[in-house]
Amino acid sequence: MRPATRLALLAGWLGYALIPWYLPDGMSLAGFPFGKAGTALALVLSGAAPWLAPVGVALLLASLLAFRQENAGTGKLLAWIGFAGLVVFFAQGFSVTLKDQGMPALAALFGGAGASQPGMGFGALVTLVSLLLLLCHGLAYRGLCRGDLFTTSSIGIVIMLIALFIFLPVAVILRSALVDSSGALVLGEFVERFFSPTIWGLGCLSANTNCGVAWNTLILAVLTGLITTLLGLACALLILRTGMPGKRAMRLLTVLPIITPPFVIGLALILLFGRSGLFSTFLFDWFGIPRSRWIYGLPGVLLAQVLAFAPIAFLVLIGVVQGIAPSLEEASQTLGAKRWTTFRTVTWPLLRPGLANAFLLGFVESMADFGNPLVLGGNFEVLSTKIFFAVVGAAHNQGQAAVLAIVLLGFTLAAFWAQQYWLGGKSYTTVTGKGDSGLPTPLPRRITWISALVIGPWVALTAVIYVVILMGGFVKTMGRDHTPTLQHYITGFSIDFSRGLYFDGSAWPSFFTTLKLAAISAPLTAIIGLLTAYLLTRQRFAGRGALEFATMLSFAIPGTVLGVAYILAFNVPPVEITGTGLILVIAFVFRNMPVGVRSGIAGLSQIDKSLDEASATLSARSFTTLWRVVLPLLRPALVAALVYSFVRSMTTVSAVIFLVSAEYNLATAYIVGRVEAGEFGLAIAYSSVLIVVMALGISLIQLGVGERKLGRRGTPALASSAAEPIKQG
After folding, report:
1. Which of 319-328, 404-413, 712-721 has the highest mean pLDDT?
2. Position 721 confidence tier, pLDDT thresholds 50, 70, 90
3. Is omega for the bond preceding 33 within 30 degrees of 0, making it cis?
4. Quick one: where is this thing mainly located (predicted)?
């Protein structure tokens, strides 16, 4: 065996024989106790936990292969031992849980019928990883992925993580759609709920009633996806392909909404366009236009979602626009094509992967969002709000929430399929490693003017909204009493210097907790997301398409449902982590991972595989190729993943509202509490502080990661005067 396989086997024995298998009651997850007491081996030998013996048998059998020659036969045996070890590991874990629960028939096979075990701890985690690596290394010895241990291990780890932290919670919550409170199967009730007129009704077309919530959600998501994609593209083209002034300020304004708690934009829109809003009052006083409630419903929710999610499309598309090879556009001009023809026949087709990924992200974000529909929806109901009230409302209909979640998943699957169909099997490679030092073609004038006309109102409205948000923290009551005051900031963020440096403001504990968890989860999200994107685009293995879709599941499920699913799945053994910081980090990572995956796929689709092959020809392993060749070219995607995961960890509400605890309270939960208490000034002041902190964090991320170097000439002004005479479109 290779040294890496022996190291994995050694780790398995450490987890089984030296590290405590279970987490003691009240032990912090930050602790890492060593010692023989409580180890799996000690528990088996004492007869306290006989169900752990099969796991040790699997490690023992693998040890017998430790010094055998590496070949296909050894790989086959090792793979089967690792697979069997994983099977018995999960079988005993889910069959022996709380007393008289779990799966009694299966527990009897392990000698634990009627017994119970606490949540698994660090010893179990290390052993699980070891068994998984043994399986993956065995498959590599048999020739899978050209025998590369890193690739097979990465595939196995990603699949395991997705299965544990996406499929398991989703399966737990969706199971309730098919069973009643006693656990009995009720298919009739499921069919009745699924085809309910409240979901699929078309009364809005034939009568003066509302359409079903599914159609409302679909219309809203399609409009949001289209508009955010076009806005993101227009902004990326103006910033990268024109010499217009003020690009730095425009780039800042377009990113601001993504670093704002989602419901804050909704509140700002109400303060501007509600019946008593600033614009509504101005229009009534000066022009006699009657006040109305147009902001409540589809227009208001659509406007809020476009403002909130267009930056996601921009972050994805700016890297794609950067990656288009100027030499292709220069070749088109050399053949006599005008600017418009070049844009239509060369530039636009190469943008298709980015456009498809940006639309998919906007579509899914719209479906999963419940903060903006909750604030601005009025009588316009969508799936996310219906699920929210089914989970936390007075009726508490968990089965109905699960049925609605299934409908939402169906829409996401359809959007995923449509994206794949539109892209087809075409190639979008533009970064090849060959000479490529041309100048990007200036935009056709009609595209420049259309983009500017589209971006102008968006940027202006964004600027006005943030003026309102920043003012709200410095006045007593926004919209009523505009007397200047600093009391909101003093209440939340006061510092007492009389006792040294003492943070005695009420907001400091949640602020520091949120900042710490976001700093931990952001790099993990980026690493897992980009690694998954690399595996999906650069490797061929069974189930690759299913894995790609699985990465979108956590995005498709509304955050509220995902939070409840995490409670149901991880509040009892074998994985018992509710009330800890770990469950919040896991929720952040797997809720935000799809952005890293989609931006990584969009970026990798432009990088020619010949670069990987050249690295392999020079005897570099896949990890070296990924680290030294691919990753430097993926810096825009890395920035997008880091920025998005960091700010969403700082601002997310729905996915964590049920997971916070007294020890791990988050900023958004604190803000929601202040809103519920009517302390809007303090809530807006806290949101303003978060915006400033996240803006600094984004600057540090971009400074630390830098930009990719493609060896191309600069793009001075991108005007026709900066290059050879070009025929105008």
Report:
1. 404-413
2. very low
3. no
4. membrane
Q: What is the DSSP code string of 577-608?
A: -TTSHHHHHHHHHHHHHHHHHHHHHHHHTTB-
Work out the angle at residue 231's Cα, subtended by the Cα atoms of residues 230 and 232, and round it to the nearest 5 degrees.
90
User: Which pLDDT belongs to residue 506?
Assistant: 92
Show the 3-state SS of 673-727: HHHHCCCHHHHHHHHHHHHHHHHHHHHHHHHHHCCCCCCCCCCCCCCHHHCCCCC
State which H helix or E strand residue 51 sits in.
none
Instruction: Please calculate the CA angle 246-462-700 and round it to the nearest 5 degrees.
Output: 65
pLDDT at 158 over 90: yes
Provide CB contacts within 8 A for 626, sequence distance 6+.
Answer: 531, 534
Name the token pair of 57.
């048998």
Give bridge partners of residue 22 from the DSSP assignment. Answer: 120
High-pLDDT (> 70) share of the chain, %: 90
d(CA 717, CA 633): 24
- DSSP secondary structure letter of residue 662: S
Q: Residue 475 has which token pair?
A: 């006045």
More confident of the two residues 485 and 725: 485
Per cent of the chain over pLDDT 90 is 25
Q: Do β-strands 495-496 and 481-484 pair in parallel, antiparallel, or remain unpaired? A: unpaired
| Rounded Cα gap, residues 238 and 458, in angstroms | 14
528 half-sphere exposure, CB direction, 13 A CA radius: 26
Helix axes 398-423, 168-175, angle to 10 degrees: 130
Place of tokens 């000066």: 286
Q: Which two tokens stand for residue 119?
A: 């949540």
CA–CA dist 101, 103 (Å, integer): 6
Classify residue 252 by burial, with Cβ atoms within 10 Å: 0-12, 13-18, 19+: middle
| Residues ≥6 apart with Cβ < 8 Å to 444 | 338, 339, 340, 343, 729
How many distinct helices (H) and strands (E) make up the chain? 36, 4
Nearest by Cα to 502 from 510, 494, 512, 490: 494
Provide the token pair at 670: 């604190």
CA distances from 515 to 527, 649, 700 (A): 19, 9, 14
Say how many CA atoms lie within 13 Å of 161 toward its Cβ: 21
pLDDT band, very low/low/confident/very high, at 552 (cuts 50, 70, 90): confident
What CA–CA distance (Å, rounded) separates 602 from 716?
26
Task: Give residue 548's pLDDT.
Answer: 81
Whether the per-residue pLDDT at 36 is higher than 50: the answer is no
* pLDDT, average across residues 542-560: 77
Check: CB of residue 158 under 8 Å from CB of residue 532.
yes
Q: Which residues, at least 6 apart from 108, have a Cβ–Cβ distance to it below 8 Å?
A: none
CA 508, CA 495: separation in Å to the nearest integer? 9
> For residue 293, what is the enclosing H or E element?
none
CA distance 702 to 716: 22
What is d(CA 143, CA 137) in angstroms, rounded to the nearest whole number?
Answer: 10
Q: Which two tokens stand for residue 332?
A: 């088109």
121: DSSP letter: -
